[in-house]
Amino acid sequence: MKSLLLLLISLQAFSYAPNWGRDAKIEKGENRENLYQLSQEEYEQVTQDGLKHALVWPVSVTGLLIPYEAFNNFFELRDEKFVNFVLTTLGEKKFGVNSVESFYQWLGLNPYNDEDANGIYRIPYPDGYKPDYYMGASIVDTKWGKGLTFSCATCHSASLFGTSVMGLTNKTVKANELFVKAKKLLPFIPTKTFQKVTNATDDEVAMLKRTKKNIHSVGAASPMVLGLDTSLPQVALSLAHRKQDAYASKSKLNEVFPRFNPLKSTVADSKPMPWWTLKYKTRWLSDGSIVEGNPIFTNFLWNELGRGTDLYELEKWLQDNPEIIKELTAAAFSTKAPRIDDFFDVSRIDIDAAKRGQKHFENRCQKCHGEYQKNWDLPFSGLMSKSEQIKTRKLIYHEKTPVKDVGTDPLRYQGTAYFADALNELAISKWMKTVVEPQKGYVPPPLNGIWARWPYMHNNSIPNLCELMTPPSKRVKEFYQIPAVDPMLDFDFDCNGFPVGMDIPEERRIREAYYNTKLPGLSNSGHYNRIFTDKEGNELLSEEDKSDLRMFLRTL
Q1: At what angle do helices 80-90 and 191-198 cross, to 10 degrees?
Q2: Which of 17, 339, 375, 424 is most buried by its number of CB atoms within 10 A?
Q3: Using omega within 30 degrees of 0 as the cis cutoff, is the peptide bond preceding 58 cis?
């Protein structure tokens, strides 16, 4: 019976086709949470399947795979000479991991929630039971044996005070740094030595050889600081390692002598946007540069270009697996924002202050970020519980997603000019109907779940909402990107975000998390004049007004 149901769903579920064109509009007050207009039964099945694709990378032709069993043996057998070789090749003095699990932790992956998790925190287990690996780690069956790769959840899920949240931007992920290290190490690993010290099978050696071959087509860049993403430079630099033909064919000459691209040295870092805002938008990236096309297609193309995958093989895989594309797309659009009263006692929300803040929001923020209709404005709302009163009953965003220049750091949106043409000319881009056009500015996103999205701005340059509401010249210039582990130590509730200055826990002051806003691409300028001031630069909100505004924002 279940198999029959799944067959019927697969035949009927996707009869409705969303508009991915530049003319796409979302009716005022509507959203695309149920993107394919499925029945409730179909919706639940399809989105659960899609989340499993987000958790376990589904692209069977992916270019980079780590032989999983051999990788595990590397830690268990621990040949000291080989370990020293790895350290020397990477130019490091200390080996920071001693097991596959500690490798996942170094990478910034998060564990699956327990079986008793409810609501949006009930994340499906790919095999039906709680895995012993972390979210984002994908142990896939291949013709060479089990291979390890990484999925959407690596960057698009995060731990919020010990609870993993799907669609929340990972603040501590090191995926880009992993590629940088792989570029340094993989080409120099002797396959015979690898087989000897890890007990790898001949098939696993073949997997390694394939990965070593494909890594030559990858260009990688380290983020300026922990928490930022360099996927844009990685795509551009990877294209520079290939021919300039319709399928970006592999070329040994280009692998050794890649074409120059300014993104080799120009900073274009940003953070991935939270998934739960997708349903309200017609532009997906923070820079608004994807003007046409399904964002999941873009996700697959960018990821696989950055993994050295053959584009003929990728195109065929995409054409052969439309259900996977649609299931993953449906899942991403279905995600919901975490509520603050899931993590803090609702008594900490002052509804009177939030109502005052609502008025300031309507006057200063709503034009760009949308309208948020609250339950507390309904008749007889006093009969509701406090948790019900603070809910947003409707979010009204733009029909067409705008791009605005409010004076924030320009390097990310400027960086799209260095690869847009090369991407658009690919045959696979034309087949996907994906178009990249550089913009001037950034998307003012919907603010649902904004309380959980610190640090702020596309480049993470503002640690909390107090600093956001501070004149740019007076904002803190240095802080630390710290994980959200302890709600008392790692989170400033009043300012909503990272603690700064002397309030930063000493154990969080690590070099890789140090944020210096004076560095290229990390400026904390903008988003102040004519938002919190009038045309003449006079302040419009008192400190009490700003506190009330923050209280309102916590309830979104």
Answers
A1: 140
A2: 339
A3: no
Query: 3-class SS at 528?
Result: coil
The whole-angstrom separation of Cα 18 and Cα 14 is: 10
- Locate 217 and state its tokens: 């087509």
- Element of type H or E holding 327: helix 322-334
Q: What pLDDT, in 10s, does the model give residues 418-429?
A: 999 999 999 999
pLDDT, tens only, 25-81:
999 999 999 999 999 999 999 999 999 999 999 999 999 999 999 999 999 999 999
The candidate with the shortest Cα–Cα distance to 475, out of 414, 408, 548, 554, is 408
At residue 88, the 3 state secondary structure works out as helix
Which residue is it, tokens 């178009």?
435
Distance CA(5)–CA(41), nearest Å, equals: 10
Q: How far apart are CA 253 and CA 266, in angstroms?
A: 24
In DSSP notation, 172-221 reads: S--HHHHHHHHHHHGGG--HHHHHHHHT--HHHHHHHHHHHHHHTT----
Choose among 295, 294, 292: nearest CA to 272.
295
What pLDDT sits at residue 9?
Answer: 52
Residue 251 three-state SS: coil
- Partners of residue 480 on adjacent β-strands: 514
Name the token pair of 396: 């009204």
Token pair belonging to 143: 């013709």
For residue 283, give the 3-state DSSP assignment: coil
Using DSSP bridges, classify how beta strands 157-160 and 145-150 pair: parallel, antiparallel or unpaired: unpaired
Tell me the C-alpha distance between 270 and 390, whole Å: 31
Tell me the helices (H) and strands (E) count for the chain, helix number first. 22, 11
Give the other-Cβ count within 10 Å of 91's Cβ: 8
409 within 8 A of 520, measured Cβ to Cβ: no
List, for residues 145-162, the tens digit of each pLDDT value.
999 999 999 999 999 999
CA 160 to chain centre: 15
| Cβ-based neighbours of 213, under 8 Å, separated by 6 or more | 308
Q: Classify 438 as helix, strand or coil.
A: coil
Other beta carbons within 10 Å of 335:
25
Contact 22, 300 (CB under 8 A): no
Q: What is the mean pLDDT of residues 2-7?
A: 50
How far, in Å, CA of 73 to CA of 70, rounded? 5
